[in-house]
Specification:
With about 950 residues, the chain is α+β, with helices and mostly antiparallel strands. It contains 35 helices and 28 strands. α23 packs antiparallel against α26 and α29 crosses α33.
Length: about 950
């Protein structure tokens, strides 16, 4: 890395090298506007850009969120209707998005191609600082009223808008309702009191004029934080910032900030309700949480103390508060909010139970307070404190990048401090703060003092009770209908005509074809000629196959033990997910599960088990399957990790029946909460369930049918005899796994790999192969699905699927490109812009040999299913454009070439090659993608996407029962 050079428009503030992260942090200030630039200089060609604005709303109209959407709908330099989504498909980006948090809005992207990076930078800078904010875009993205029959003023008025429907979907989640209700009381006077995403009942209160005024003050460089990561020098980036945006602005006097929260003098207790349209017993559906407001996130020492205290109390099942919550018969599982929230200016610690009874609320509070009092009185073992500090160190060291780009993860980690004018460098350089914390914990009273200071003696405490109300949803719908009816009755003929004309104008705008050529682009010629590949060794370890990968893991080591999945009965197959959960959550040898959890916390960063069932690349009816035990640790703990993994596999005990019961109850709670966030994936999995054995199993184990199954299982396990039988079945599965052939994976830094191999060899002497081992197999599957799953949601998730071909088939490539082509050319406009859904699209899933249409958080149902068909008609009858094909190809290649973390890429390669997905086959598929033609798209659509072959699955609410019955769908209830 070269030394920092400053552009003349910026002043250099400081630089700081972080050896543990292999980067240098540079901080600059724009002289004219005061804009901050923080650059993370690293030897990495995946360059990341983010510009963040401090956005501090004072109501729940969703102004910051709607502005985030609207700002991306055209700008001064790029006056097209949708430059953001246009650039998604004209780019080789590895990440593009925009986020609205509670007190900031950010616009990040990443790319490995420098020309592409600068193209995106140009568009993003113009979108943020020179947005057009067209009133029709505000109506589309935010909210509007239309007549149910667009040109009939006698029909009912309805609310529409992308954010309006997105938040209806988001607020269908009980976890979201719990969090936003809690913040309303925990933060009585600051911006966190409000829902920055927008409450559906308040979103229609936002006016266009208010949106523009919020933009004027908040989207100014004086309120902006530029953050970058990668190998492009800071001065080169600053030249672009200055030329394309900053030179047009002067300093803005207005300072956007969040003040200190007003503190309570005594704890408060509040009760609110959430809608639950459910025929089940409502007696045990209440949520109870306790929350405390702590110190500022910008004080790193306090923040780490609070994180350590939270870890000690809640990190694992042996942690005192987590143990009390998990083992209590007062509730079903610990609340999903449990833990430390450090995303706001002042931290919050939350704990509680879900699945409780209303009459037990006081008992839950007493349980929590008594547990904290006991810890404050007795303390915790020094080994537990050391283990929690170990977890903090490990999380600081790990090189991420599997979800977001690694550079973006670092940027977001520093953003909270930057937002509140703290020290973002300190947030990244935890070594000093961790050393100071290690010194503090030498005081045997440290944890007791911290617990009393932060929690027991802290009067700013809220007890929130959120109880179910089966009539609340109907009342909310009635209130919305009444509001719309009152509005309609007040309209003059001129106002009615204005609504009709705006609807027509918006439809015309959505249908207009913009001149995309004004936007920058990369092309097929910019695609790298070869797939990025992480090579690994192929060797033997005492007769076992071993793969070793060298990767820049920053002092961590990753290991997996993979067993061929044995033949399982149908009943055993249904228990496979629970076996994988229990394998690393139960006791080992003479240790009970609590002692084992403490052992895990001392030795590894994580340990888990998972199963993989996939169809063959040339025949999805023929499956292969594996069970993997996976862990990671600091290099110094590699030997101890080996001991733990070996003991977990060879000595796990299935006799802790109450623990098993708790694990299933917790799994049920998490799975039930997942529907509103992943409804489109669950609907697609259901629609594909008849197309291959692996797809059927995915639906039965991990999909909607799996959620229904875990609810039924949890209910059955209330019976002690059922529980004992269940544990015996898990133990029987484990005995079969122990007989299976196994192999090993090691990922670490090159200089340590030989040592890791030798340590592994010492623990796993060769064992004879079990004679007559029977491998897992499944019968072929071919059936059409037509299902509607009823659950607690305000929006719909729709899916339609067709049987196609597996990955090795030549048509898999054009089908994959077709998904992006249909999304870009038809579905995005029809489902999101016109239909108001938060998202929609299509994709080929070669693992199940299926092509799937989907919509996400969708106010419509039947109309969306019709749009799926209309997309195919558009494809067949339209003159397709070569530019659109190139964009779809770029999108697929971008997703294939998207980098992960160093360890993540090695693990992905290992798992892919277990199933025969060799480098050559993956390269062949990538080459086929680049060679796809427009004729190929029409041909594969006509060949495979035939109406009589389609399967349907939707996730919807009880109000749509008659509708889905009329569509001939079988109704299933979650």
């Amino acid at each position: 890395m070269t030394q920092a050079v400053t552009h003349p428009a910026f002043e250099f503030i400081r630089t700081h090298t972080l050896d543990s992260l292999k980067l240098r942090v540079e901080e600059y200030r724009h002289k004219a506007t005061g804009a901050q630039h923080i650059h993370l200089a690293a030897d990495n060609n995946e360059n990341v850009f983010l510009v963040a604005l401090r956005t501090v709303p004072h109501d729940s109209t969703g102004v910051a969120h709607i502005l985030e959407h609207t700002a991306l709908c055209g700008s001064q330099k790029y006056p097209v209707r949708d430059p953001f989504f246009m650039m998604v498909r004209r780019s080789l980006n590895t990440f593009m998005n925009a986020f609205t948090s509670s007190d900031w809005t950010a616009y990040p992207f990443a790319s490995q191609n420098r020309n592409d990076f600068y193209n995106l930078l140009d568009v993003y800078l113009d979108a943020v600082f020179f947005s057009r904010l067209d009133e029709l875009d505000f109506a589309q993205e935010g909210h509007r009223v239309e007549f149910a029959e667009a040109e009939n003023p006698q029909s009912d008025l309805v609310y529409k808008g992308v954010v309006f429907n997105e938040m209806k979907g988001a607020m269908s989640s009980v976890g979201s309702q719990l969090w936003h209700t809690l913040c309303k009381y925990l933060y009585p006077s600051t911006t966190y009191h409000y829902n920055s995403g927008g409450e559906p009942e308040h979103i229609p209160d936002l006016t266009y004029a208010q949106l523009k005024e919020f933009y004027r003050t908040h989207y100014h460089p004086s309120n902006a934080i530029f953050m970058t990561y990668g190998d492009i020098p800071a001065a080169e980036l600053q030249a672009r910032f200055e030329d394309q945006a900053l030179r047009h602005f002067e300093s803005l006097d207005e300072v956007i900030s969040v003040p200190d929260e007003k503190r309570y003098y005594a704890p408060i207790a509040v009760e609110e309700a959430y809608p639950l349209e459910d025929s089940e017993d409502l007696g045990n559906k209440t949520h109870v949480v306790l929350a405390w407001l702590l110190g500022k996130t910008t004080n790193l020492d306090e923040a780490l103390e609070a994180q350590l205290l939270s870890n000690i109390l809640l990190d694992n099942s042996a942690s005192p508060l987590q143990q009390a919550l998990e083992t209590s018969d007062l509730g079903q599982a610990p609340s999903p909010l449990c833990g430390l929230d450090d995303s706001s200016r002042e931290m919050a610690f939350v704990c509680g139970l879900e699945g409780t009874r209303l009459e037990d609320v006081a008992k839950v509070e007493a349980l929590i307070v008594e547990t904290l009092e006991k810890v404050a009185q007795d303390g915790v073992a020094q080994e537990q404190i050391e283990a929690s500090l170990h977890q903090l160190e490990l999380s600081q060291r790990e090189v991420g990048g599997d979800g977001y780009p690694y550079g973006l993860q670092l940027i977001l980690h520093a953003l909270t401090a930057a937002t509140h004018r703290g020290d973002p460098v300190a947030q990244l350089d935890l070594d000093r703060a961790l050393s100071e914390l290690r010194r503090k914990i030498a005081d045997p009273q440290f944890i007791q003092k911290a617990l009393r200071t932060w929690l027991l003696d802290n009067p700013h405490r809220v007890r929130l009770t959120l109880r179910p109300d089966p009539h609340m949803s109907a009342r909310a719908q009635a209130a919305e209908a009444a509001r719309l009816a009152a509005l309609k009755s007040s309209l003059s003929e001129e106002q009615q005509q204005a609504i009709i004309e705006r609807t027509q104008a918006l439809q015309a705008r959505q249908l207009q074809v913009d001149d995309e050529s004004i936007l920058p682009k990369v092309g097929i010629e910019d695609i790298p000629p070869h797939l990025h590949y992480t090579p690994g060794s192929q060797e033997q370890l005492n007769g076992y196959p071993l793969r070793r990968y060298s990767a820049g893991t920053n002092g961590l080591v990753y290991q997996q033990i993979t067993a061929k999945m044995p033949a399982l009965s149908q009943q055993q197959l249904q228990l496979l997910p629970y076996y994988c959960i229990c394998l690393t959550e139960l006791g080992v040898g003479d240790k009970d599960y609590l002692a084992t959890q403490r052992w895990q916390a001392e030795v590894v960063g994580s340990i888990s088990a998972f199963s993989s069932i996939r169809g063959a690349g040339n025949d999805v009816q023929r499956v292969d399957a594996y069970i993997t035990l996976s862990a990671k640790a600091l290099a110094r703990n590699n030997g101890a990790m080996n001991d733990l993994m070996q003991a977990s596999l060879q000595q796990v005990r299935f006799d802790e029946l109450e623990r098993i019961r708790e694990l299933i109850a917790q799994n049920r709670a998490r799975r039930e909460q997942s529907v509103t966030g992943h409804g489109h994936s669950l609907a697609m999995t259901a629609a594909c369930a008849g197309m291959s054995p692996a797809a059927k199993v995915a639906h039965e184990l991990g999909g909607l049918a799996g959620i229904a199954a875990v609810k039924a299982l949890d209910n059955r396990l209330a019976d002690d005899a059922e529980l004992a039988n269940f544990a015996q079945q898990l133990a029987a599965i484990h005995q079969l796994v122990l007989t299976a052939p196994r192999q090993f994976l090691i990922v670490g830094e090159q200089e340590q790999l030989d040592s890791y191999r030798d340590q592994l060899a010492a623990r796993w002497p060769g064992e004879p192969v079990t004679p007559g081992f029977a491998a897992f197999s499944l019968a072929p599957v071919s059936a059409r699905v037509r299902e509607a799953w009823i659950t607690n949601t305000q929006v719909n998730f729709c899916a339609k699927a067709y049987p196609t071909v597996p990955l090795d088939h030549p048509d898999a490539a054009p089908l994959t490109v077709l998904g992006g082509f249909l999304r870009n050319g038809f579905l995005h406009r029809a489902i999101r812009e016109q239909g108001g859904a938060y998202g929609g699209g299509a994709s080929q899933d070669s693992n199940s040999a299926s092509f799937r249409f989907y919509s996400y958080r969708d106010p419509r149902l039947e109309e969306t299913l019709n749009d799926f068909d209309a997309a195919l008609e558009w494809l067949a009858t339209s003159e397709l454009q070569p530019q659109s094909l190139e964009e779809a190809i770029l999108g697929v290649i971008g997703s294939i070439d998207k980098p992960g973390s160093p360890a993540g890429e090695a693990k992905s390669t290992y798992q892919a090659e277990l199933f025969g997905r060799t480098r050559e086959l993956r390269e062949q598929f990538r080459n086929r993608i680049v060679a796809v033609t427009l004729a190929d798209l029409k041909r594969v659509a006509a060949t495979y996407l035939q109406p009589e072959k389609a399967s349907l699955a939707v996730v919807t609410h009880a109000g749509n029962r008659e509708l889905v019955q009329g569509l001939g769908l079988e109704i299933k209830t979650l």
